[in-house]
Design goal:
heterodimer; A: mainly alpha; two-stranded antiparallel sheet; elongated; B: alpha+beta; six-stranded antiparallel sheet
């Protein structure tokens, strides 16, 4: 990559810049700042779209009374039952059960607190889901 | 307490941390030199290991390897520690800081509040240097950020005890002693020899040049095997593994090319400059691959056509890298 080709296409970086290695006209390497690149922007956007789509799906199931709000918060935090089990110290089969609305409704406050502390929200927030997926990402600067 | 630490921003976390630590301990050096001596360059496509539910593709060696190898080859004495208890882990860092020793730490990106939100995925191989503590914040030299950042104590605790793949278990490392004399020539040629060996003579078909060819064979099968949507997700994932903040597959090739330029001076061998140029050209190819792949993900081109084209690209990358490392190996043998 040549110095003048270092991309400046910031989108998701929230003002952060990173180092790119580029060559000058004599072919010597130097470290240049880049605010972002199209290829990264697209694939990062793709990854978040995927998560958002999963959140939409799980919202439907939560509203239908099949899945618990925990299922929503798990996906929002990019976790699966295995990771959730590791973080909370609960057995995986228990975590899986807690994803059911009926089981979740009967959980003790001790268990609810454990999940809430992990996600850094209060228990009231843990027990409900928003209208729309609420991923707090930097909005793309267009 | 705050240690007077020479924070410099670099492209990659682990080589940046190592370069900054060495500089602090009186051996000023570049990230590229550390990356080269630590044999950081690699390729691996390991479909049976999943990261964020997608197959692992890596352009660098496993976390920890660069620091370990670079310091060993330079004759630097290091210490490393893992912990079971977060409280103990925190006390140890505070003790070291009090003794004026900056501490390298492995962390999970997901829990680091100073990262842009869109970059916070569950990736546990991120390295940084803890260089001070002020009340309830740690001061951190994170080499992929422009300036020193601060991180609340509880957040760093979480990041150091992140769970899942590559769980850091509070791992910290620091430089204990610097050698009287450094044999840079031997360190540089040892670093080069190992990368050549790993890229060319790997016993497993998922690593090195063979790994690139393996991916090139698998890629065109994805749309039929997984469906178009999943195929594009996996393709996007490769690009993210390649060009994520602070890493970069094309980026790693460029860092290595910069290292070869330094190596040419250290070993006093002009041929390494030509090899550096070829390495730059390979990096450019990887970047083009990333761009075409990303545009395919956006749906600008048909998936099936794209994967065939991309596979051809990969074969070319594999051929060029193979030739590069064969020639590099021949040159470095004369210096050993």
């Amino acid at each position: 990559m040549k110095k003048e080709e270092v991309p400046q296409q910031g989108e998701w970086t929230a003002g952060c810049r990173e180092i790119n290695y580029a060559v000058d006209e004599k072919g010597r390497y130097s470290l240049e700042l880049s605010s972002g690149w199209e290829a990264k922007n697209i694939t990062l956007g793709q990854a978040w779209e995927q998560i958002e789509e999963q959140l939409h799906q799980v919202l439907v199931e939560v509203r239908a009374g099949r899945k618990s709000p925990l299922a929503y918060h798990m996906i929002k935090n990019q976790m699966d039952p295995a990771l959730l089990a590791q973080y909370t110290g609960l057995a995986q089969w228990r975590v899986r059960r807690h994803l059911k609305a009926s089981v979740f409704a009967r959980l003790s406050s001790e268990i609810l607190n454990r999940y809430a502390a992990l996600f850094r929200i209060d228990v009231a927030t843990l027990c409900r889901v928003p209208e729309q997926p609420d991923l707090a990402l930097t909005p793309p600067e267009s | 307490m705050v240690i007077d630490f020479p924070h410099r921003q670099f492209a990659h976390c682990e080589s940046g941390v190592t370069a900054n630590l060495l500089t602090h301990h009186g051996y000023p050096c570049s990230e590229a030199l550390v990356f080269g001596i630590g044999s950081g360059l690699f390729f691996g496509y390991v479909p049976f290991i999943k990261l964020n539910f997608l197959p692992l593709t890596t352009f660098r060696v496993a976390p920890g390897g660069i620091f370990k190898k670079a310091t060993r080859r330079l004759g630097v004495t290091i210490r490393q520690q893992r912990f079971r208890s977060p409280v103990e882990a925190e006390q140890r860092v505070d003790e070291l800081l009090a003794a004026g020793i900056p501490v390298g730490a492995q962390t999970g990106v997901f829990w680091l509040p100073y990262f842009p939100p869109a970059y916070r995925f569950h990736f546990n191989g991120h390295n940084l240097v803890v260089m001070g503590k002020q009340e309830n914040d740690y001061l951190i030299s994170d080499p992929i950020f422009e300036t020193v950042v601060s991180c609340p104590v509880p957040d760093l605790r979480r990041a150091r005890f992140a769970r899942g793949a590559l769980a850091p278990k509070g791992r910290i490392y620091w430089i204990e002693d610097m050698p009287q004399e450094i044999d840079l020539r031997t360190a540089v040629s040892a670093g080069i020899a190992e990368v050549c060996r790993v890229m060319l003579k790997t016993p497993v078909p998922v690593a090195g040049v063979r790994g690139i060819r393996f991916l090139a064979r698998r890629l065109p099968q994805w749309p039929d095997k997984l469906g178009e949507k999943k195929a594009l997700l996996q393709l996007g994932h490769i690009v993210r593994m390649q060009e994520e903040i602070g890493t970069g597959g094309g980026g790693f090739r460029f860092i290595y090319a910069a290292f070869l330029q330094e190596a040419a001076a250290v070993l006093d061998d002009e041929r390494l400059l030509d090899l550096s140029q070829r390495c730059t050209a390979i990096g450019d190819q990887w970047r083009e691959f990333a761009l075409i792949a990303a545009r395919a993900c956006k749906g600008r081109a048909g998936v099936r056509d794209s994967v065939v084209q991309l596979a051809q690209f990969l074969v070319r990358c594999a051929d060029d890298e193979e030739q590069l490392f064969v020639d590099l190996q021949a040159v470095v043998r004369e210096h050993r």
